[in-house]
Amino acid sequence: MLKKKKFLITLVMGVAVIGLLVSGPVWAKVEGDTIFLGAAVSLTGKYSINGEHTKNGYELAVKRINKMGGVKVGGKSYKFKIIYYDDESNSGRAAQLAERLIKQDGVKFMLGPYSSGLTKAIAPITEENKIPMVEANGASRSLFTKGYRYLFAVLSAANQYLEVAIDLAVEKNGGKPVTIAMAFEQDAFSQDVRLGVVDAAKRTGSKIIIDDKLPKDLNDMAAILSKVKATKPDVLVVSGHGKGALTAIRQISEMKVDVPMLAMTHCDATKLAKQHGKKAEYALCAAQWHKTLSYKDEYFGDGMKYDKDFSAEYGYAPPYQAAESSAALLVYKDAFERANSFDREKVRDALEETFMQTFYGNIKFSPQGQNIAKPMVLFQVRCEGDKCENRVVAPTKWASAELVHPTPKWSER
Question: What CA–CA distances, in Å, run from 89 to 45, 113, 122, 154, 207?
Answer without folding.
Answer: 5, 9, 12, 21, 41
